Amino acid sequence: MNNSNNNNRVRQFIVNLDDNPYHRWDHVAREYKDKIKDVERYIDQSLLSGGWLARGVLASVQGTLGVMAKLNLVAYAKELKGLSRELSIPLGKMVAMQLIYEASTCCTSMVIPDNQNNQVDISSSSLSSSSSSTSSPSSLVLARTMDWSMDCLKDITVEIDFHQSGASVMKATTWVGYVGVLTGIASQSKTAVSINYRRSDKGSFMDNIKNLISYKWPVGYLVRHVLSTATNYQAVAGTLELSGIVAPCFMTIATVDKGIVLARDPESVFRKSHVRDATNTQLEPNIQTSFNNKNKNNNCITTQSNYFVQTNNEEQNDNDNNFLYSNERRCLAKQQLAKWIETGEPVTDDSIWNLFSTFPIHNDDTIYGTIMNPTTYSIETRIPNTRFGFNLNNNNNNKNNKGMTSKY
């Protein structure tokens, strides 16, 4: 484990995939046992406020999930059994908590090009060293914030460096007790992925339960699986596009020189949005035209851009699904990214953290922010300060950062 000098950098742990899965997470779980009880109590209180019907349905679901896990019929069942033991949480509830973590992650994800060969100075989360490097032309960075109306998640947010055969194969930002990956980067494929919540008419509570029982992937489990096994970007993007999943979501995927956002329904793709590739001239450039055409047929929407920002609704202003300032977060981020590209201003980790520290990207529900660089296989995750956001000290160098209390 490495304790960073950065006062809001999360703790980092190695999890060895060659270890017995029943004990793979023991060293992490033991350090956070007391803090995860706060999360468990929060979830229990939330369920109590849902009324007797919700409690009854969820109790039944927990019972079913517990039986499935005991029979090893859920992914990573052995790891979940070990966590259940170490954290003193019933197995059925442990499995149910995996789904709750995925249920409402309101976030901002950005794929940022560095076309001017500017320095992208992102500290490595390797447990033995840190580094920065000059990116090659057209290299990409994936940066994201994670929003959740459960402040106690900040206390159990960690970075995990997954090792296998003596080498790092994947790095992820996650919560102790959750074995899926919603924010991660792979060594072999040089691909980073982030997951955002998406509302869809194909994602009701009962639809999700039915999809789960039908052995569709919880998306965090799918991301972990593909990042730890796929050998290249095409395999990562293709598997995430074609696999059946439990609930709708947005998948942001980036490698060194290309990126895509998939607006996923459980069995199909609603939209594909590419970061513009100079070799691909067949992509639809007009977003509004694409959405209008979607109303006439059921074809997948395809769009392209020089960069991409994904919040929790569609690319156009979607006032019916404007979760936690989704429209405002997207507009603010795109405005700043356009300025960086137009002026050729170097895009550094500090400039990204300053953007992430600006309301409403940084808001009362922001749990963490992460920057991932596929070129250098690096990840950095910070917990925001209530007043100063993700900046490491009170001397904010970005004069345009108006903080949480100002709605620009």
Automatic annotation (TrEMBL):
A GO molecular function term, named singly, is: N-acylsphingosine amidohydrolase activity
Q: What is the lineage of its organism?
A: Eukaryota, Amoebozoa, Evosea, Eumycetozoa, Dictyostelia
Indicate what this protein is called per its UniProt record. Answer: ceramidase
Q: What's the short name of a Pfam family annotated to this entry?
A: NAAA-beta
Q: What is its EC number?
A: 3.5.1.23
Q: Where is the Acid ceramidase N-terminal domain?
A: 9-63
Q: Which InterPro entries match?
A: Acid_ceramidase_N
Enzyme class at the top of the EC tree: hydrolase
